[in-house]
Structure formats: C-alpha cells, structure tokens
Amino acid sequence: MDELLLKAVLAGSLIALFTGPLGCLVVWRRLAFFGDALAHSALLGVALSLVTELPPGLAVALTAASLAILLLYLRSRSKLADDTLLGILSHSALALGLVTLTLFESSSVNWMVYLFGDILAVGWGDVLTASLLGLLVVGLLAWFWQSLVLISIDRDLARVDGVAVDRLELLFMLLLAVAIAVAIKIIGVLLITAMLVIPAATARYLAHSPGQMARMATAIGLAAVWGGIGAAFQWDLPTGPAIVVTALLLFLLATLVRRPTPRTTPT
Amino acid sequence: MPSLLTLGDVSVTTDSGVTLLKKVNLTIKPRQIISLIGPNGAGKSTLIRVLAALQPPATGSIERQPNLVTGYLPQRLTLPMNLPITAGEFLRLGLNRHQPNTELHTTGVTHLMDKPLQALSGGELRRLLLARALIRRPKLLLLDEPTAGVDLIGQVEFYQLLAKVRDEYGCAIVIVSHDLHFVMAATDQVLCLDQGLVCCHGHPEEVSQHPEYRSLFGAGTEQAFAVFTHAMGGHNHAHAHGGDHIDAVEPVHTDHG
Q1: Which one, out of A1, A88, A253, B171, has a CA that is 20 to 30 A from the CA of B245?
Q2: Is A92 an 8 Å CB contact of chain B?
Q3: What is the pLDDT, as a whole number, of residue A244?
Q4: Is residue A172 part of a domain?
Q5: How many structural domains comprise chain B?
C-alpha cells in the first residue's frame, strides 16, 4: 500500500475511534454548536503556533481548551442564551483565526489545509500523536462512561448520586479540545463537528443502548473515514469533505433501513 | 435522636438579587415525613434543592449527617431524545448490584424494564425514579411534587407507597405537595412557605388552625382532613386496582408544572 495512504488511513481510523463515543455525548447533550465553537477556535490555535513557535497540535489543543473553559465560565455568568453566546464566540474565533493567519502568513503554511483537511499533510509524527492521544481519550471516556451517560440524562440526578458533575464536564470539554487538535489535519476545522454528529446520529437509528450507540458510531465513523480517504485518493478530493459526504451517505442509508426507536412520549 | 440535616437561617438569592428563601430553619429527623406547602413561587422547590445540595445557600448554615445518602425526585425530567436507553439500564447506571427486585416490586415498575426510558408516562417515570432512589438505601428522600398531573386515585396510591417506603426503608421524607389532604393526614410536620419565608410550621393540626395558613388556603380545609384519613385508613379500596392504575388514567407527562 502507498505509504501516504497508509498514514492517512491509520490516522483517520484512530480519529474515528474516539469521535464515536465523544460524538454520542455531544449529541445527547446538544453540544453540536459547542463543538463547532471549539473547532473554529482551532484556527486561532494554528495562528498562535506560528507566532509562538509551539507545535501546532499543542497550540490548537491549548486554544480550544481555553475557549472551553471560557465558555463554561460565561455560561454560568452571562445573561445571553447559550446559542447566542456560542454564535458570538464560535464565529469570532474563526474570524480572528483567519485574520491572524493572514497577517502572519508565511509560505510554509497553507491554511486551507486546516479548514478542510489534507492527507498529504499527515506525517508519521501525527499518526503517533493520534494513537497516544486517542488511547488517552478513549480510556478516560470508558472509565467515566456510566457517569457521563447519567449526566447526559439529568445533571441533578447525577449530582445527588455523588457524581462530580462539574469536574466531569470540564474533563469532557478538554477531551473534546484534544480530539479537535488531533483531527484538524485530516478533517479540517470546518467539518470536525460533522464527524462527531453524523456517525452518532446514524447510530441513533440502530442502537438500543448508550454503549451500543457509541460502538456503532465508531464503526460508522471508521467506514466514513475509509470510504472518504479512498474517494479523496481516487478523485483528488479534499479529505474532510470526502469523509463527511461518505458519513452523510451512511446516515441516509440508516434512515431508509430503520425508523428511529420511539422518540415521542405518550401525551 | 440525632438529626439527619439541619438548616440554620438559610437564605438563597438569585444572581440578580431576588430573594428565593429567607432565613429558613429546618431540622429533619430520621423517619420523619415533612411536607412543604405554599403558593406557587413560594420557594418550595428551592428549599428541596438546598436540601439536596444542588443549590448553595447565600447565607446560613447547613449541617448534614456525614455520608447521608439522599434520594431526589425532581419536579420534571427533560430526557434527551437522542439517547437510547431502557428503563432497566437506566436503573442500573452506576450500580454494582444486579437485579434490584425488591425495589422494582415495591414501586410496581417490574414490567417496565425493557421499555425505552422516553416511552414511560409521567407516573411510570416517577415510580422508576423512586425505585432508583430506594436501591441506594437513602436515609433522606426529597420529592418535588411527585404527584403533579396524577389523578386522585393515583395520588392516593402514591402516598400509600410513600408511607410504606418510610416504614420499610426507615428513611425521612421531605415532600413538596399541593395536596392538603395528604399533608394533613400523613405528615409529621408541615412547613408552610410564602414568598421565601416560613410563614407557619408544626404539626398538621396546629398549622391548619394558624391564621397565616388560613389566609393562604382558606378555611374549610378541615373536611379534607377527614376524607383523606378515611382514604389512608384501613379500607385500602383505592389500592385494589393494582399498581398500574396511574398509567391508564394519567394524561400529563413530566413537564407538567
């Protein structure tokens, strides 16, 4: 196999491994817009790495994590509704990132890579980082899984049961930030949320338990990554969009195969 | 007997400076049933949330028995529609034990285990939450309007269940109730709140004679007392319908206020 293809498939598969369970939590907790805001801030992280000469992955993770903490803080303080707050932060982060990148533009950085993802940009170092961080993210999610599911159902019930809700929510945001930093080169800033949401939504049509939904989301994510990267190689497409289009096709297929399990309550 | 939980001059204010509770004092003893009554917006739910340690007080002291196991039934539960989970799996979340049969039987939810959580009716969900709380062997149960939207027979059944729970599990119960019948018949202590202040408290009979209580709820609630003592007493006819009566007749889901 082509080494380039191998690297891309390996890194992509590692990403799908944790976007599955993370995406489920994002979908359950209605945090899709939140994920978007974190992803958009990643571009600012790239700009930051140019200025400070930090490694891009680290700078992205730091920026996303700072934004996550800022959002948690503002959410408890601000009078604005969540979606308004996110609408401001999310797009401001994207715009700030683009402005900063343009100001500091150097020939060595093609920022389109960060917007849409490019497998040509994936090196062995990225594969190694993805596997280490992927292992960390999946391990922590598995360890706290039951508590995370309970928080998704009702935070107050979890709190009364003695679950450290605030700390777990912070942990979840940080894991999301790490995931974004890892995924940015393959999927791109603009489409990471799709990689979180679409496989999870597809799995919702097929799964009967939270754990099953997470495993299915992972499997669907893997299929989307393989299909997408294959298509990207074949027809010279940008990787991120190719992966997301594949995920979308799988989603449509699932909606044709199955009605979702009952989502309405008797009235 | 040492108290489970003692509030001393507890006040709660919102971020915008509105007072929700003002200098509330309350002592909860083991096995005691305490009813919180009062008009809408009086601070009953806030007080329950303070007791559940979900709402930090602005001022005042809270003494909690160390390692006090608390069960809490919120007034409403907004379930995420995207989360596929059965009632049984929800019950077992974070639990090491396997089949908590006794609790399922006591609360009459055994047959619901394979149903999706989101498909339960309001009454079923409340009994499931009660089962869930009981599995953890609470010493204190906090119930925020557990019979909202349940018809009279369903309410009587639920209150009988509570009396049974208190006897079998030996837990104290604090309950927000609009149902003066139950409050008067089955309660050890009544706490009447109005605009964040405890306007009167004590034994049900004392409270029902209190001028503040009468101005809030009107006179003539004594006959309710008689009706309910009858219903709670030896006849037990309401219960004869079996545990599922609530579901058949109850029209309202949990998002009922």
Answers
A1: B171
A2: no
A3: 93
A4: yes
A5: 1
